[in-house]
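[Help] Beginner question about ligand-bound structures

Sorry if this is basic. My supervisor gave me a protein sequence and a SMILES string for adenosine-5'-diphosphate and asked me to "get the holo structure". I don't really know what that means in practice or what format the answer should be in. Inputs are pasted below exactly as I got them.
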Amino acid sequence: MHDDDQPPRAQHTWHHLDEEALATLAQRLAAWLRADPGRANLRLTLHGELGAGKTTWTRHLLRALGVQGRIQSPTYALVEPYEVTLGTTAVTVMHADLYRLSDPREWLDAGLAELMDAPGLKLVEWPERAGRLLGTVDVALHLQHDDDHHRHLTWQARTAAGEAALLALRSTP
Ligand SMILES: Nc1ncnc2c1ncn2[C@@H]1O[C@H](COP(=O)(O)OP(=O)(O)O)[C@@H](O)[C@H]1O
Ligand SMILES: [Mg+2]
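Answer (accepted):
No worries, everyone starts somewhere. Holo just means with the ligand present. The predicted complex, written as structure tokens, is below.
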């Protein structure tokens, strides 16, 4: 059975988040990763319609992890890699947007399987496009429109690591 067929280990929804509140959650996740860089071997998928805020969430997280300069949406490149330093540890972050992947087999052809299996933090928009090739997902994030300026964010923890991160996010005031 595939992971996605199982109910999440833990789930929480934050309602009516403006972009600042969304950024605050991304910053808390970054702080949790920074406290123990070993935590950064995490695979996070981002679900939600166009304009839901998947790239916006990712940008805030990358900024909070110390990425400077322009953060492009990898809509055409499929994957944009970043190197960040957490404490003294170098961590590779992969931001993928699979919207333009028309066939899961392209996933293999483009060498994405190797990239995704390498250590580091993975942030994947439109994971549905990779079918079941993506492998184990620690966290599935679902973004939904509330109104023009607010979103609902559901965090589905699918592994112990994803659950630990959720506990940390919820316990910070
Ligand atoms: N509360 C919010 N959270 C996230 N994005 C928001 C919010 N309010 C407005 N927005 C805007 O909605 C748009 C989301 O676009 P984007 O992040 O590119 O979506 P996606 O990657 O899901 O297609 C951005 O222009 C962003 O500024
Ligand atoms: Mg996007």
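A couple of things worth pointing out: Residues 9-158 form a domain with the Rossmann fold fold (CATH 3.40.50.300). The first strand starts at residue 10 and ends at 17. Feel free to follow up in the thread.
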